[in-house]
Amino acid sequence: MQSYFKWSDWIIGFLCLLRFCDSLNNGLALTPPMGWMSWQRYRCNVDCYNYPNDCLSEMLIKRIADLMVSEGYKDAGYEYLIIDDCWLNKTRGRNGELLEDAERFPSGMKNLSNYVRPTNKS
Hints:
mainly alpha, Glyco_hydro_27, two-stranded parallel sheet, Alpha-galactosidase
């Protein structure tokens, strides 16, 4: 017996069924998570000597946090500022804890997060 449906017919049929899918009407996740991630722009640039304005550092993160507010991103719904990678020191602390690179983040991550959060910059 020969099938009268092509693969494209099945795909179109499936897509038509998606039209009837619904999400919970609970007010959550009305927009996708919105924010800024360091990896998308700066990758793992840690050369602050040759690229002081473009290396992953405390100065850069503070500048981005300020721009998220002053350029209207926060008002548009952006709420996350993610330092993705390359913020770590090359060695761990005495108890095995992760440590930030003290040269690029001289005030520490706690102080950096205190700068970003209380002012609702992110």
